[in-house]
Structures are given as structure tokens and as C-alpha cells.
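Continuing the batch. This is chain 6 of the set; chains 1 through 5 are on the previous pages. Same settings as before, nothing changed between runs. Recording input and output for traceability.
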Amino acid sequence: MIFPDLRPDESGAKEYTDLVTLIGSGTYGDVYRCQHKQTKTWYAIKRIKEGKESKMGLTGDKFMEIFAFRELSHPNILSCKSIFFHGARLCFALELCNTSLKSILNSGHSLTAEDRRTAYYQILLGLEYLHRNHISHFDLKPDNILIKDNSGSSVFKITDFGLSLITGRFRGPSIVYTGPGFRWTPIYRPPEVFGSTLEVGQSSDMWSIGLTFFEMIIQTSVIQAEESRIPAKIADLLGRLPNDMDPGISDWHGSFINLCGKDYTPPAQPYMHTLFERHGVRLEERQFITKFLQYSPEARITAADALQDPFLANCNKSCNILDRDRYERNLPPLQCVMYGPFNEKIRSNDM
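Output for chain 6:
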């Protein structure tokens, strides 16, 4: 593996141009576009906001993010060139991608069925690699899947390991669950977390990535509700409440049912099927998506098994959705323009 350079001081910051061009901000901090002075390669510098727990901003989640970027090396995982401090704040020098899956979906560009198969395959390659290396992401969603042009091919890359944890390294697939606000953006949170399960693990990621794949079909969030109403929306999606026939959910299914409300009645047809019909999804893809969206974590397909699923057999291993997306929106081709992680335009002669 190629580990990123980790500098516990500010010497690493001197290798890059000044943090001037801001390309995005969030609750975690800011992202700047910077150039490595020696190689002239452009990077997205993620500069973490100073945390209350540490003078150097090293909260527990940042230790995990450092660990992930130091240990992981895979074409479908965002790579990290170096980790250093700047102004006593932790910085990650990350490869600069063209856009995110979320931005593509928000653009109104409909992904073809074959493009989706390619995307599923590439994302699952990255996720299987994470799980094989005992890391659960715990915040998979379209925002955290970036897309980079590689000589005309679109490469999907999983990013943002701030909520990730080591799981499944010892006997048993899970870690101890630590509270109702544990990990996850709420609308991608699996049902066991709402039910206050005692354990979560790699199978919990499979629910989130299943919703992400579904979103690639319908181009909007599958679950749309305030947090308190999400359990009922999950039941609508699956067309039923969880029950004792679902393996491995006895410790939480009662709590989940209570959150749906005593007057809740499932729809006559699972909303999942309604969406499939509305968007003309063929049977093989319906069956594939359904394998991810199961109440029981034990019943969900694993990333390794999903890669071997007949639906992905003989799929194209690469596609070019980036230029196709730009053509449909009457925009210049990618050789003329690049986009940072937050869709800020970068002139090609700046790259």
C-alpha cells in the first residue's frame, strides 16, 4: 500500500501553494484547491475546523479518518497524498475529482441502465475493499461518492471517512451501538439504528448503499421526511412492519414499530414497487436493489456477494457519464473545464 505522508507539524503545508482558492465549506471545515509546488499536481485540501476536544483539532473521528487514509489504497477509494497541519488545524491533501454523484443526480441527467450497472460495480469494488479491511463507512450517500475523469472514463470513488469505524476484525460482524444519533445522515440510516439495536456493522452499510443505488434510478432521495417520520417511511418503502420472521432483529423491531406510531398502516403495495414501476426498472435491477433493502441485516446482500450477482455479470467496467452529462446540459466537454468537489469551475489551463 502507498501510505500518505503524515506530518505532525506544519512543514507539510509548505509543499503546497497558499490556501487561497476556497472551493467549499461545511460543518467539518473548508476545502481549498491547491497545487503541489514540486509536482504541479492539483489537490483538494480539506482543512478541519478546530475541535473543542483538542488544541490540534484531533477529535476521535479525525483519528479514524487519518487511519483510513493511511491504510487504504484502491482505485475506487479517494486517495490522500499527505496529511499535515496548517495554522494548528489538520489538513488532508486529497485527489481532486470532477464532481460528486449527488451533483450529477441534481443536474437532471438521467443515468442509463448500463451506466448504473457500471456505477454499482465500481462503488461495490470500493465498498468490498473497505469491508475486507474491517472498515465500515457509516455515512454512505451520493454526496460521499465522487467521480473523476480518467482519460475519458468516469471513476467512482468513496470518500469521507470521518464517521467510519473498524468492524468485523474479531469474531462477530458488529460493534456495540452507542446511541440514537450514532453515525449516518438520517435519511440513509438503516432501520436497526432507529430501533436502537445493540450492534451495527458492515451490513448496515449495505442498507445505505442500497438507498444510494435506488436514488440513481429515481434521481431524488428515496426517504424524504423529518427524522421522527423516517421509520414510517422505511415501512412504506418495504410495504410492511418488521416482524419475528425477520432473522436477528428481536432486540430492536419492537422499538422500531413504536416509532412508526400506533395508528400506522402499511400501504397496499410497497412504495419500492411503485417507484420501480414509475421509472420502468426492469426485473433484474429490481431484484438486485431489493437485496440491499431488507429489515434484517443478516438478510442483506454483502458487498462481495453483490459483485458476483448475475445482474452485474458482463457489465461494462467503465463508462463516461461525465461528458455525456455535460453534453445533455449543453456544457463544454471536460477537456475544457474541471470541477472541484463543490462544483466550482476550474479553467483547464489551471490544471
